[in-house]
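Handout, tutorial session.
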Amino acid sequence: MTAASGTRIEEARPLHSSTPMKLVSVIMPAYNVAAYLEAAALSVVQQTYPAIELIIVDDGSKDDTYEIACRLRAQWPDRIRVVQQENRGLAEARNSGIRAARGEYLALLDSDDVWDPDYLRSQVAILDLEPSIDIVTGNGRYLGGYRHGRLVRPHPDRRPQPNLRTILTDE
């Protein structure tokens, strides 16, 4: 399917689940990350929280990122969707993923980071437990380079208590 903006969206088949869990749409912008994409995507599809869709947004990559995304979608057609667009930058890639999302909750993961297996389960539990909470942040792990496997943010985090503005500008 091609949206009016020229963005190509490959549809996933509907989720087949008898559980009334809330769907989480994981938005993963991807630009020239062929070396990391599979590990990042696997950290999503292997989450212990089952009601997820991963939306990989290929932002005009020049390497094999799009081909790898399509191969992953073929392996997990019920869980992965692929959006392909001309290079528009990180913010627009995220926005394209958000527009394609069907979930009640949104989660952002960079294509060179990974999550621990219980990451989404713990995030959704917080949101379900306290309806007044609108946003939950967490941590990821680096892929590649001298920081490989290390937490993205220090723990405990000594930064000031975040608000929506600082969270979005920190991404």
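The second record follows below. Compare its token runs with those of the first.
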Amino acid sequence: MTNNEYQNARSLLEPQRKALLISLAYCLPAIPLSAMGILFFVHLPKFHAESLSISLSAISLTLLISRFWDAITDPLIGYTSDRILNPYYRRPLWLLVGSCIGGGVFFWLCSESLMSLFGTSFVEYLFLLLFFFSLYTIALIPYESWALEVFSEERDRTRLVMLREGATLLG
């Protein structure tokens, strides 16, 4: 293979390599976001009931209320993030703010010592859950919508969503 042929072959592969790197970078946040969701719904209720003596009925009621809260906040966050015109603030900033602050609240919910300071009464527990799920929504809704804006081709978008869902399964 001559140097000219090598350069031509490399220039043909460069867009594919760039698309793969963009796809992998896009998919990375799905892993910790899904890990937080799984840990929250599978392990935290048992931890809160056993370690903090929060009743299972209080935990169940706060989870039910938080699902109704999500029915309000999900479309609200989606509508708000859709109205932002600047591409840097439209999706990535929401993901960054929601996941960073949400990660802090999640850490609080996982810490027995922090929860004993604030979070063991029904009202405090409900507040923490609503705050966590609001931040989770702030991160997740714009992040999932962002897939439609990363690539212009439908085939590339489909591949991106497939990779994101695969990363979600890893989390």
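Points raised in discussion: Residues 122-150 form the longest helix (29 residues).
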